[in-house]
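Input structure tokens:
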């Protein structure tokens, strides 16, 4: 029997606007717009049914600095459910929902404890009588670029010490802003029993072989095609000699991708049936799925079938009727690799590859984007591109070049 059990979650991004999905059918768009709430409700369901000692939320509860009233009201409703179940909640606010914004605040029930803008310790005694010390701080403003880890100091006596921090591990993902940076070594020095992190949306265990676990639980609902795969929360069982973790998937919408091998297919009809079959493999009884499809090995496909991939007819056929399914699999895009079937003269191919390689150099990349980022009007609205985005853009550009060559050959 473990001595302490709690749920660690972060990056709820409640009421995410899901920009750019307005083209989807209304039923599916509604499901998506409700998905951050649906996922959080499931987390609370789990906290109540497991009778956990407490719930930790390590920042970015709200998506927008304005903390929509709707998001606050719905969060409050869930906090009240936890209050009625006798479960305390410890919260810190991150870069998305920092304390410096100008919003109307809805008061939370008394089981909710929010960390202030300086690192502080909150003491808590479980029903079994164990003393837990929790440490953390909320972002006073959006951009917290300085190190805050040095302000954490373990205070005895307590049975368990848990650090909460919303920030970026040094050398971590370039997809996230380098806020409140820290190294794994710096966290270990603090001699906590567990580090409940937030900020990075992909689940990561920075330290797990031996005491203490250092964990990014990831966000609770993928918000775009870059946030694929299982999303939810972590259930932590902590005792003086052992830590065990389990991930609970709670996301209502799953972003996914699939690659379809068309090497044995010739006709459009067979291609359609194969895609449908693969879609049904992706179908889940508890989630809606948004699917990116790539068709590979299209050498044997009839020209007409390839044409129907390119002009969107296949996509339309695959989407047909899915908007009425509770467990929908909505195909967002269908791509095929023309490159595979392209026969190019070797010297030209070499030249083409060379040009593409040159484009991947930082310098030429920046040059290509100079007009956009150099423009005082548009640059205001642009965030620095991440490595992941750069890579994607280059892959798309490469594909475009091959397609243009193909259509002219
Ligand atoms: Mn976040």
């Amino acid at each position: 029997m473990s001595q302490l059990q709690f749920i660690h979650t972060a990056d709820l991004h409640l009421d995410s606007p899901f920009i750019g999905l307005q083209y989807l059918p209304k039923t599916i768009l509604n499901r998506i717009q409700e998905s951050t709430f649906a996922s959080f409700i499931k987390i609370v369901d789990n906290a109540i049914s497991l009778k956990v000692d407490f719930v930790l939320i390590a920042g970015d509860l709200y998506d927008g600095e304005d903390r929509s009233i709707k998001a606050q009201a719905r969060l409050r409703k869930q906090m009240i459910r936890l209050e009625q179940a006798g479960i305390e909640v410890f919260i810190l606010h991150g870069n998305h929902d920092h304390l410096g914004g100008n919003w109307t605040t809805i008061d939370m029930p008394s089981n909710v404890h929010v960390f202030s803008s300086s690192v502080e310790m909150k003491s808590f005694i479980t029903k079994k009588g164990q003393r837990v010390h929790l440490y953390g701080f909320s972002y006073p403003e959006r951009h917290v670029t300085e190190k805050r880890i040095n302000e954490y100091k373990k205070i005895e006596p307590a049975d368990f010490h848990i650090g909460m921090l919303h920030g970026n591990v040094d050398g971590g993902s370039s997809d996230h802003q380098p806020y409140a940076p820290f190294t794994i070594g710096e966290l270990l020095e603090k001699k906590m029993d567990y580090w409940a992190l937030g900020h990075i949306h992909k689940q990561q265990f920075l330290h797990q072989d031996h005491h203490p676990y250092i964990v990014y639980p990831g966000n609770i609902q993928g918000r775009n095609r870059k946030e694929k795969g299982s999303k939810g929360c972590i259930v932590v069982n902590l005792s003086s000699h052992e830590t065990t973790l389990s991930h609970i998937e709670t996301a209502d919408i799953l972003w996914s991708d699939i690659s379809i091998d068309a090497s044995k297919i010739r006709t459009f009809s067979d291609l359609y049936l194969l895609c449908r079959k693969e879609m049904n493999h992706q179908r889940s009884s508890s989630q809606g799925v948004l699917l990116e499809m790539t068709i590979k090995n299209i050498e044997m496909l009839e020209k007409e079938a390839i044409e129907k991939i390119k002009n969107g007819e296949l996509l339309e056929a695959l989407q047909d009727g899915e908007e009425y399914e509770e467990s929908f699999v909505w195909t967002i895009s269908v791509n095929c690799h023309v490159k595979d079937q392209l026969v190019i003269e070797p010297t030209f191919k070499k030249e083409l590859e060379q040009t593409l390689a040159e484009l991947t150099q930082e310098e030429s990349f920046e040059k290509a984007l100079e007009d956009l980022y150099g423009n005082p009007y548009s640059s205001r609205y642009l965030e620095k591109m991440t490595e992941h985005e750069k890579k994607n853009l280059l892959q798309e550009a490469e594909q475009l070049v091959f397609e243009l060559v193909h259509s002219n050959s």
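The chain has ten helices and 15 strands. The longest strand covers residues 253-261.
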